[in-house]
Amino acid sequence: MVFTTLTYFVFVTVVFTIYWSIRLRTAQNIFLILASFIFYAWWDYRFISLIFLSSVVDFIVGIGLSQTEKQFTRKCLLFSSIIINLSILCIFKYFGFFLDSLIALLTFLKLPSPNCIDLQIVLPIGISFYTLQTMSYTIDVYQKKIHATSDFVAYLAYVSFFPQLVAGPIERAGNLLSQISENRTFDTAVATDGIRRILWGIAKKTIIANNISQLVDSCYAAPETVSGNALLLATFFFSIQIYCDFSGYSDIAIGTASLFGIKLMENFRYPYFSTRIDEFWRRWHISLSTWFRDYVYIPLGGNRYGLWRRQISVVAAFLLSGLWHGASWHFVVWGLICVIPLSIRRLPGMGRPSVQMDSITQHSGTRLFFSVIKVLKTYAYNCFSWIFFRAVSTEDAIRIISRIISGSPGSKPIMELTSHLHVKLLSVVAFFVIEFSNQTKLHPLERLSWPTPVRWVAYTVFLWLIISVGIKETETFIYFQF
Question: Which of 285, 325, 330, 443 is catalytic?
Answer without folding.
Answer: 325
